[in-house]
């Protein structure tokens, strides 16, 4: 317990989102979707004055492609805040964004049944 005039000790590592984002508004949701894959661009160096969150993103994305949702999960930050930080790095040329995979095409049920019957006829076992 603190006495009048004393500062309360800080007991949490929690930092408010608006402190991390500098009070900026979040990017449009279509900019970086949850399934968008990001990776560090080759030959880039950590931006000067990078905060701890950007450093953590740098370390995570150096290992290969991660989705925006995975980065947010590893950082323990809200997805919107993560998307804002990733957007900043992307606009500065530090991140690569992998194109979304093509949508699966509809396959005729008859073809799937033929494949199934062919596998059953192999009688492997």
Please, could you describe this protein's structure?
This protein is mainly alpha-helical and 125 residues long. Helix content is 40%, strand content 8%. The protein contains 5 helices and 3 strands. It has helices at residues 17-21, 52-61, 68-75, 79-91, 109-122; strands at 37-40, 66-67, 95-98. It has a 3-stranded antiparallel beta sheet. Helix 3 crosses helix 4. The model is unreliable at 8-12 (pLDDT under 50).
Q: Structural class, judged by helices and strands? A: mainly alpha
Low-confidence stretches: 8-12
Approximately how much helix is present in the residues? Answer: 40-55%
The number of distinct helices, counting runs of at least 4 residues, comes to 5
Shape type: elongated
The strand count comes to 3
Radius of gyration: 23 Å
Estimate the mean pLDDT confidence.
Answer: 80
Q: What portion of residues belong to β-strands? A: 5-15%
Order of helices and strands: HEHEHHEH
Largest sheet: spatial strand order: 2-1-3
Main sheet specs: 3 strands, antiparallel
End-to-end separation in angstroms reads 71 Å
Fold topology:
Layout: H1 17-21, E1 37-40, H2 52-61, E2 66-67, H3 68-75, H4 79-91, E3 95-98, H5 109-122
Helix pairs in contact: 3-4
